[in-house]
Amino acid sequence: MMRGVPLAALCMAALLIAGCATTGTTGVKTITYKKPDAYNFRFIGLDTEIDDPSRDRRSYYKIFIDKSEEGRTTTGLESQEKSCDAMLQPNRHLVTVEKWVLDQKTGRYIKLNNIEQPKPNFVYFDLPEDRIVVIEMKTLGDGTSEFVIDYECR
């Protein structure tokens, strides 16, 4: 399991470079990142492996940065992307996520209990100056989640 971590990091770096690279007039590839304006942090969350519309509930995520509530994502079906943007200081940060779903009986959103929350529901990330960090959390059918940390390109 540990052997796959460096390989996965190398693959992510290669995809990042290939995804943001453009070929200039000299034939040299350069990386062009989008500069922060209204936000420099974006969280995207969604569930995968939902194959039955009756199981696709309306939901949103509460986002905590360094253990303080930062905001919440847009609302949508679990299988749809829900996002939240924020402006943070360049530093190392901890993002923690709480999932909330619509209770059909009461018509109100309720926080899923700890057993049903995505596992893990947090990730540490570095936010450099003049970059927009995008963190995508995909929750699989078994309740485990995968995080992808990337920079937003132009």
Key descriptive features of the protein:
154 residues; mainly beta; six-stranded antiparallel sheet; four-stranded mixed sheet; 1 helix; 12 strands; 11% helix; 45% strand; globular; disordered N terminus
Short description:
The protein is mainly β and 154 residues long. The chain has 1 helix and 12 strands, in the order αββββββββββββ. Helices cover 11% and strands 45% of the residues.
Q: What is the string of helix and strand elements?
A: HEEEEEEEEEEEE
For the report, how would you describe the main beta sheet? 6 strands, antiparallel
**Quaternary structure state of the chains depicted:** single chain
Strand content: over 45%
Helix segment tally: 1
Name the helicity range. 10-25%
SS class: mainly beta
Please characterize this protein's 3D structure.
The strands form three sheets. Strands 4, 5, 6, 8, 9 and 10 form a six-stranded antiparallel sheet that branches. The longest helix is centred in the N-terminal third of the chain and has 17 residues, at 4-20. The protein has one helix spanning 4-20, and strands at 21-23, 29-31, 41-47, 58-65, 68-72, 76-77, 82-86, 91-103, 108-111, 122-127, 133-139, 145-151. It has 154 residues and is mainly β. The relative contact order is 0.22. The chain is built from one helix and twelve strands, in the order αββββββββββββ. β11 (133-139) and β12 form a beta hairpin.
Topology:
Layout: H1 4-20, E1 21-23, E2 29-31, E3 41-47, E4 58-65, E5 68-72, E6 76-77, E7 82-86, E8 91-103, E9 108-111, E10 122-127, E11 133-139, E12 145-151
Parallel strand pairs: 3-11
Antiparallel strand pairs: 1-2, 3-7, 4-5, 4-6, 4-8, 8-9, 8-10, 11-12
